[in-house]
């Protein structure tokens, strides 16, 4: 049997965009701590971090959210990265209740390089990112030229198509 002894496996490093949101508890502390948790995971580096934005909740009536986005350099494949995000959500007390209901931490995998993935448990690009000002405003701050591969538009073009009046910069963030 042929065995390769000298081949060092070097996983490819890819860029991935993540959306963060919180509207229960001390949201600023939760979002900063979740970002630090991600940065501490082997195979993940934070390349860019947006400001935080106070945003009116989309969905059932509930308190305003704090939202932001980060760009990661990852050596993990998309399912593994999603698993990491779900584990961190649980660590910060996320309890899944009603759809689009309030939560202490929501982490969405928005983009992974230029990949399109459509499986029952993972869709990339995130299927609702194009319509969400609370995602597009922070993402446009750090990745205006990233092409959303389904629409064929870059983020700075997508953000112009949505109403951003309910998204306000958290001063000092
Ligand atoms: N790109 C993605 N990012 C995060 N979760 C995803 C993605 N694609 C599919 N999922 C699935 O969605 C589930 C998360 O659903 P969740 O309860 O967070 O939805 P939501 O935040 O209420 O709504 P929305 O998806 O519209 O933000 C995960 O368990 C995961 O399997
Ligand atoms: N403004 C805002 N609204 C939301 C958000 C969010 O992060 N920000 N997340 C939701 C669940 O995915 C539902 N509604």
What can you tell me about this protein's structure?
This protein has 173 residues and is an alpha+beta fold. The protein has 4 helices and 10 strands, in the order E-H-E-E-E-H-E-E-E-H-E-E-H-E. The strands form 3 sheets. Strands 1, 2, 3, 4, 5 and 10 form a 6-stranded antiparallel β-sheet that branches. A two-stranded antiparallel sheet has the order 6-7. A hairpin with a 4-residue loop joins strand 6 and strand 7 (123-124). The longest helix is centred in the middle third of the chain and has 14 residues, at 78-91. The N and C termini lie far apart (58 Å). The structure holds adenosine-5'-triphosphate (ATP) and 2-amino-6-hydroxymethyl-7,8-dihydro-3H-pteridin-4-one. Adenosine-5'-triphosphate (ATP) binds next to helix 2, strand 5 and strand 7. This is 2-amino-4-hydroxy-6-hydroxymethyldihydropteridine diphosphokinase. GO terms for molecular function: 2-amino-4-hydroxy-6-hydroxymethyldihydropteridine diphosphokinase activity. Pfam families: HPPK. Residues 99-110 form the 7,8-dihydro-6-hydroxymethylpterin-pyrophosphokinase domain. Pathway: Cofactor biosynthesis; tetrahydrofolate biosynthesis; 2-amino-4-hydroxy-6-hydroxymethyl-7,8-dihydropteridine diphosphate from 7,8-dihydroneopterin triphosphate: step 4/4.
């Amino acid at each position: 049997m042929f065995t390769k002894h000298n081949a060092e496996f070097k996983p490819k490093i890819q860029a991935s965009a993540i959306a963060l949101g919180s509207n229960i508890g001390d949201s600023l502390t939760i979002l900063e701590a979740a970002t630090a948790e991600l940065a501490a995971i082997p195979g993940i580096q934070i390349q860019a971090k947006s400001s935080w934005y106070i945003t009116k909740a989309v969905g059932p009536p509930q308190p305003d959210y704090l939202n932001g986005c980060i760009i990661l350099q990852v050596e993990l494949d998309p399912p593994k990265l999603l698993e990491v995000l779900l584990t961190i959500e649980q660590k910060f007390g996320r309890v899944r209740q009603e759809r689009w209901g309030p939560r202490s931490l929501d982490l969405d995998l928005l983009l992974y390089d230029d990949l399109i993935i459509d499986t029952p448990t993972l869709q990339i690009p995130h299927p609702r990112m194009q319509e969400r000002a609370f995602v597009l405003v922070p993402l446009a701050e750090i990745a205006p030229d990233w092409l959303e591969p389904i629409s064929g538009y870059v983020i700075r073009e997508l953000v112009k198509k949505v109403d951003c009046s309910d998204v306000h910069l958290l001063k000092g963030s």
